[in-house]
Design brief:
The protein has four helices and eleven strands; from the N terminus they run ββββαβββαααββββ. It has 222 residues and is α+β, with helices and mostly antiparallel strands. The protein is globular and about 45 Å long.
């Protein structure tokens, strides 16, 4: 009788087995006025959802590995590639400061966004007499801390894509256009870490006067 011998197997051997590297879909709720950061893989999609309506979302992104990669999502380069048109339309790509595509807009319920305003920061609120107010720059820097970001000034140096922000030609509109459940979806063209902030700016009734929750869905198939 022939005795068959099988190689021993240990849990560590799993790393050598072929696997589906596509992450499973996940949903994360970001409290109103706070931030969140997450990694996305090339070939997947992610979604930013306004859960209650009229909520602005500041979005920044850095190409991995961060912080050794100096490449990031750039509104200036994106405006140039779109011939100055704003906001991008479905099918358009957002590009980096290396002039390379990082995300492709594949779905947009709102069609109203901003690519010109900076992220609000502590000095901005101090000038308005509310020095302890939360800010988008701080929110994103706080969320990016596990990746090595140590100061809100690192976030403030990158102009955000202001999703759902109704500010045509640099004019401030008190009320946004997004409705509850509206979302934008992006196909990922470069591995990146994304920082988002449910914008806390509520001065003079802006954004309905109260920051509300948003949701982020990752690991979606394009």
């Amino acid at each position: 009788m022939t005795i068959l011998k099988f190689p021993s197997f240990s849990p560590s051997a799993k790393a050598n087995l072929p696997s589906d590297e596509t992450p499973s879909p996940k949903t994360h709720t970001v409290p109103g006025g706070h931030g969140h950061a997450f990694e996305v893989k090339k070939g997947t999609s992610f979604r930013i959802i306004d859960l209650h309506g009229r909520q602005i979302v500041d979005m920044m992104a850095w190409v991995l590995p961060y912080p050794s990669s100096l490449e990031h999502l750039s509104m200036a380069y994106t405006r140039y590639h779109l011939n100055g048109t704003a906001p991008p339309a479905v099918g358009d790509t957002l590009v980096t400061n290396k002039s390379e595509p990082i995300f492709k807009l594949t779905h947009d319920d709102c069609h109203t966004h901003d690519m010109t305003f900076m992220a609000c920061n502590p000095a901005f609120y101090a000038e308005k007499g509310v020095p302890d107010h939360r800010s988008c720059a701080e929110n994103i820097a706080e969320a990016m801390r596990p990746w090595g970001m140590s100061s809100y000034l690192q976030a403030a140096s990158v102009d955000p894509f202001n999703i759902f922000q109704n500010t045509p030609d640099m004019t401030l509109k008190d009320l946004g256009c997004s409705r509850a459940g509206d979302f934008v979806e992006f196909e990922v063209l470069k591995d990146a870490v994304v920082g988002v902030s449910s914008c806390p700016y509520d001065v003079d009734g802006f954004g309905g006067g109260k920051a509300t929750d948003i949701a982020v869905m990752t690991g979606l198939k394009p």
